[in-house]
## 1
Amino acid sequence: MLPPVLGSLPVHPVPAHPEGSHLPLVLGIDVGGTKVAAGVVDGNGAILEVIRRATPGRDARAVEGVIAELVQELGARHEISSVGIGAAGWMDLAGARVVFSPHLAWRDEPLRENLEKLLHRPVLVTNDADAAAWAEARFGAGRGYSRLIMLTLGTGIGGALVIDGGVERGSFGMAGEFGHQIIMPGGHRCECGNRGCWEQYASGNALGREGRELAKKHSPMAAGLLAAVNGKHKDITGSVVTELALQGEATARELVAEVGDWLGLGIANLAAALDPALFIVGGGLSAAGELMLEPARRAFSRNLTGRGYRQEAVITVAQLGPMAGLIGAADLSRR
């Protein structure tokens, strides 16, 4: 039996393009640790209908069953030409196999073959950050740019690179792991096994950790943070600090600005290596907006190689919100 339908997701409007009006409808599916969302996407990147269900644990076959049922349900109401699957993890270059997914029991899983047998439609499998970057490049903040980097700030830092009309996957399909550049040798231990990774300083987890550390030291500066969580410092998360910062709480704003400083430093490193014209910042932490991006821009300019003698990339916030991965996976399936 399928998990219950959890309800609809917000649909973000996408400006229409004449060239997209004659393209067939496609289906995008975003597979997460807690939910599977499926949406019908037209040639302009607009979502016509979206539904979601709870992820049935870590069972790979059960997840494939949920995907099949969602496609069947939406396919009964829309003529769908192909299906794009976006999920966290590493995918092969052919868009056929999930090499490794951190949230599900997919290990060298021939997902495309499995699903095409169930769905009787062409299927593409892609990384969720790659899919989000493609959506922003095609329909969001990246329109008009031929080279851009997308960063998704949440638990860690996801990333993807779009170059000259295509997502750059690298030689083995694992490009874009920008969060694991070592920015502070010997620094905080990262889940990847290294120390000092960028995502330990410029992510939602990093923001929450700094708030908790301040509270644990009984600093008077943490009074506002503790008041928001009824004195339970373990409940201070990145999202709590972000919300307090948006409300004007001084310490929360300072912590968000510090994360922005680290963000700008890492972006300067990426600019030195890859020289894109645009950096798009998405993910849950991007809700901090200019409170984080303005310090990031200052740190970027301060640390940029050749500063003062080169054109600087634009740093902006993503436009498509949590639907970017679904839209991008759908559109990539056409290609």
## 2
Amino acid sequence: MKRLSWPRWMPIDPYVLLLLGTVGLAALLPARDTAADVASGASTAAIAFLFFLYGARLSTREAVDGLRHWRLHVTVLACTFVIFPVLGLAARGLVPVLLSQPLYQGLLFLTLVPSTIQSSIAFTSIARGNVPAAICAGSFSSLIGIVLTPLLAAALLGGDGGGFSADSAVKIVLQLLVPFLAGQLLRRWIGPFITRHKKILGLVDRGSILLVVYTAFSEGVVRGIWHQVSAARLAGLLAVEAVLLAVMLLLTWYGAKALGFRRGDRIAIQFAGSKKSLASGLPMASVLFGAHASLAVLPLMLFHQMQLMVCAVIAKRRAHDPQTQEADAAPPAAGAARSRPAVRTGNPAG
């Protein structure tokens, strides 16, 4: 398998720059009145189409093949949907010293979001880890997260002003789950088309996310909620997220070692189990939080860039570790995922 390369210098993810530019546009020219209604309708359609594409892209065969390495996938899911939320709940003690209540809700929502797919694959490949396992682990996390993230939000945020309600549950089913299942059902017929046009469709889904961000932040600007955020609060949020990422990177690496995983599997577990998906989280936040989505997604956007920068450095260091040569020469562990789908070498943002 062709190894991915990473620039020697550490750039800001270009897509994050586009996201920040979209936030700036919403701050300067927010959608109001009729324009806001149009943007909201377009955003709703974009979210549904986005999850339709997610469903159509997920290979059922790859998912079934990946079940052979179930211990690794259970470990990643436990990190994503158990350990992360527990740490998020523990951060409640930082309110109001470091975090305001709205920023804490956004931080807690961050911990409920599924793992990434593309960046987990990219960094695992750079670090010479078990790439097929990373593909399956990210796919399982995204699939399960469509159902589990809203349920966790209902349990942990529902009684705390998080914006989750019965109406939100209906929106989740109609805007996320139904399009996703439709994509899975139609994959047999539209799969080849999606494969042939994956670059164009990739631009479409990224554009959809930008539209969601613009709509959410426009609502926030119109409602004046940005006056609630100060520079000190943002600095506190960044500090908390840095600690959260460091704890998860250490737990996934040394915890996987304690569980007896090979080095290649530990690399996959570390990168799939320590990250959160911006692509999945932004649309979900738009549905769950409505008018309060702008503050809710701010912690996720910051964490996304932070995880890319830190994991890029770690991946390059893992690739030059002498132990990786031994891991490459060793036979694969029993039950390891055997599918070897092609790895995209594009931007590892997920």
## 3
Amino acid sequence: MTAFMLSVSAHAFTIDNSNQSTITATKKIPAITTTITPVPSVPAKAIITKPIVAEYSSAPVQNIDYHGIDDANLANQYHKPIFDELAVSTNSSAVAVMDLQSGNLIYSKNIDTTRSIASISKVMTAMVIVDAGLDMREMITIIPSDLVGAKQATTKLRTDDRLSRSEFTLMMLMKSENPAAKALARTYPGGYEAFIAAMNAKAASLGMYQTRFSDSSGLDPRNVSSANDLVKMMKAVSSDPRYQLIRTFSTAPNYDFYIANASMGDRTYKANNTSTLVRSGEHPIGVSKTGFIREAGYCVVMETHVNNKPVVIVLLGAGASQTRWNDARNILTELAYRR
């Protein structure tokens, strides 16, 4: 199989015969240390042994002697995470922001409401593909049924298009091609129905009890979840080394696919990431996926780093595409100004 190479300013990876994916040239942001001098309002019985040095950690500060403090609430204020509740307004219908270091939700809005999630489903599709340990070099051919979904959707793929499983996974995560998701599920051991069952089993194993999948692409509005459940999914993708491929593929800004087609001729398909933030390179995004159908509204999930702290952001049910990006930028800006 011919080797393919993508080179961009923030990421570089190859799709080759060994199916190895690497990220290089990632900017490292130095850790920040803040020195906080205790305020004089602490009761006289509190013994402050030395100035409080708070690094970005959710662990309680250890250098305060609480002996003799009568007011437990006063002591507990020193245990608050550095990332406490965000003072931000959002217009998306459901929003969750989690500080991954502390495991604390630092912004929430309708997080337990079950909603249609559109192409956010493709993250779970990719997880099932990776979990199965399938040969990512195996060639897959698009058939007519792959082009038929629960809803009409535009696509640049055609019957008899032929790519490797790895390339179809990249196309699904980066460009959100629905026939790619359908073909990947169809060629799963046991077939399409076995794949959907595996998606639901994976969701249950992650404690995503408000989540249900009916198709692999998200065109089916019966694919539902909640912001709270999707945080669980994104935590798993962000932390498990097995899912490096998902992190790499979902944040590729663009890629030129060379598609073989015996009946219609070979061609090059130039594709761009569906995420405005990924394409712009404004933020060090580690995982990303967008979604839209009428029932779901405009959605996006992402993992990123702000001030060297990992954060998961889930935005569901925005009324317009720009609304989700405005919400995302407002959240990222607020995070950047925090200690």
